[in-house]
Predict the structure.
Amino acid sequence: MAHPQYTYNPPPQEQAYYDALFTAADKSNTGYLSGPTAVEFLSLSKLPVDLLKTIWSMADQNPTNNTLDKPKFAVAVRLIQLFQNGKKPVDLELNLSPEDGVMPMRPPFFEGVNLQQQPQQQVQQPQPVPQQHSPQRSPQPSP
């Protein structure tokens, strides 16, 4: 019996963050993560081992080579993000239910991994318009 094929394509505002996570995990720069390398990195999420095993089986859709490429890694990271936020996917594209999708989720967390590029929240708050101030001159003392 075939397993469901999970996919996740990060939205444009999150793509750079997912790419940076993959680069941080792919220390040997091979374009894929071997089983031990992936386990080491995904364990930084601090999720229980049994849950990480489930996430691995959902992400690694071709277990014969026991590796994660970027698309499989995106599935694993998305699942980690969902579980870290107490959410569950509703379909094979790892979307949330309309009720869950209203509030923004925290980005996936991996202990000790500090990236410059943080994803933008999925729900944007209006930004205040900066005030234009003309420089004030201090009075010059008279001689």
The CA atoms of residues 33 and 68 lie 5 Å apart. Strands lie at 32-34, 67-69. The two ends are 94 Å apart (CA to CA).
